[in-house]
Amino acid sequence: MTLTDTPQRFSQRLAPEFFDRVQQRLLPALEENGFDALLTDDPEDVAYLTGFFHHPCERPVAVWLERSGRVVLMTPELERENALRQNARAEVVSYAEFPGIEAPFASLARAVDRVGGGSRMRVGFTTHMTNERLTAASSQLPGATYLPTAIVTEARYLKFDEEIALHREAARVTDVMLEAGVALVREAVASGGRLPSEAELNSHVTGTGVRTMYAEHDDVVVVSPLAGALVYAGANSAFPHGLPSGYRLRDGDTFMLSLGCAVGGRFVEGERTFVLGTPTAEQRLYHDTIRRAQEIGGAAIHPGAECRQANATCLSVIEKAGLGHYIRHRQGHGIGLGMHEPPWLEAGDATLLTPGMVVSNEPGIYIPGHAGYRISDSMLVTETGSEPLTAFPRGLDDCTIAL
Predict the structure, then answer these.
(1) Is the model's pTM score more than 0.85?
(2) Measuring CA to CA, which of 35, 194, 243, 339 is 20 to 30 A from 253?
């Protein structure tokens, strides 16, 4: 089987019953923290708790989860049908419009008060809520006590089996995108035509990811980005998170395909660094060092390890090679409904890695005026270690495109 072999048709939408288990997972944490209810307006939290995906804007969407297990989803009226079409696992209440003659959160307050006096509650609000949104909510339930909490964020660390299946399929599509990017460059070389620009490569791989999902999947869950890419070459790649430009690839360039996509709203990223033409000794040193750091860093990702220790083990490979002054960032980060989310594989995060977490393993170095070198896989923490979900080859010999 090759990386691009197509499986049977894949459904991105999780069964409504899945969200019963998600909601039940939160109830003990509410009890332990003395909360009567939880309030969140974070779009990722909303999707995690109810299965409702929406386009965030000025109109608030929020979830209210009570310790009794009752779940209320507040939406603007124009999103109500979308929530019902997506089988949102919640009681849906709506408000007319924003800012509205009546405040949006009044609809949630009526639903809460209908079953027992929300004003007497201790309410945990997720830490992504802005002061403006929290004020809008608390003004409609003025007697409640509101306390910040990270219990939803921490629950999202550990993926259910159904979520892991979505991550695996996102990894397969990401590998397809990587293959498509390499194929475009090789076809240009073989034809003797112009080599693609960063922007052209970016458009091609992004389009490949989206087309693959719509061709092979049912119930595509649209998030932003559905498929995404950072493509940069030569000196441009020395800027982490640089944006694709009109720069056109040329002989001797180091170039980076930093790709990813979301299946069922669950992200994966896969990044590889390539050399166009015959690698120089300098390019081989840089690439081989990052490859070693990524391999050793992957082995350091295992149950019971602290995130900060995995990060230190990974980056020490670069430092021992005498290239530490080119390090610009941590080893990696959590990944799930967000492309970047906790925990962080960084010196300041002591979180213990646990089976079911998905984290990135992406050491990199960035040499001003020359290029950047980064290799990334999304890693599933298993009972015995960790497993890279993306499978595209990582070594320089496999990532060299001959001219």
Answers:
(1) yes
(2) 339
Q: Is-contact 86 73, C-beta < 8 A?
A: no
Cα–Cα distances in angstroms (integers) from residue 210 to residues 2, 90, 202, 256, in the given order = 20, 30, 12, 20
Residues 51-57, mean pLDDT to the nearest whole number = 96
The secondary structure of the chain in percent helix, strand, coil, rounded to multiples of 5, reads 35, 25, 40
Instruction: Provide the residue ranges of all domains of the chain, joining segments of one domain with +.
Output: 18-155, 161-401
The answer, yes or no, to whether the previous bond of 148 is cis (omega within 30 of 0) is no
**Does pLDDT of 8 surpass 80?**
no
By the 10 Å C-beta count (0-12 exposed, 13-18 middle, 19+ buried), 2 is classed as exposed
Mention every residue, 6+ apart, whose C-beta is less than 8 A from residue 173.
209, 212, 213, 227, 261, 263, 268
In this prediction, residue 143 carries a pLDDT of: 86
Tokens of 80: 């109500």
Which DSSP string corresponds to 266-332?
Answer: EEEEEEEEEEESSPPHHHHHHHHHHHHHHHHHHHT--TT-BHHHHHHHHHHHHHHTT-GGG--S-SE
What is d(CA 40, CA 96) in angstroms, rounded to the nearest whole number? 20
Residue 111 contacts residue 141 (beta carbons within 8 Å): no
Q: What is the CATH number of domain 161-401?
A: 3.90.230.10
pLDDT single digits (tens) 115-153: 555 567 899 999 899 999 999 999 999 989 999 999 999
Q: pLDDT band at residue 1, thresholds of 50, 70 and 90?
A: very low
pLDDT tops 50 at residue 376: yes
Instruction: Calculate helix-pair angle for 307-320, 281-299, nearest 10 degrees.
Output: 160
Residue of 22, 97, 107 whose CA lies nearest to 72: 107
Residue 256 phi/psi, 5-degree rounding, is: -120, 135
Domains 18-155 and 161-401 share a fold: no
pLDDT band at residue 113 under the 50/70/90 scheme: confident
| Cβ pair 272, 388 in contact under 8 A | no
Burial status of residue 42 (CB atoms within 10 A of its CB: 0-12, 13-18, 19 or more): buried
Q: Which CATH architecture has domain 18-155?
A: 3-Layer(aba) Sandwich (3.40)
CA distance 106 to 60: 12
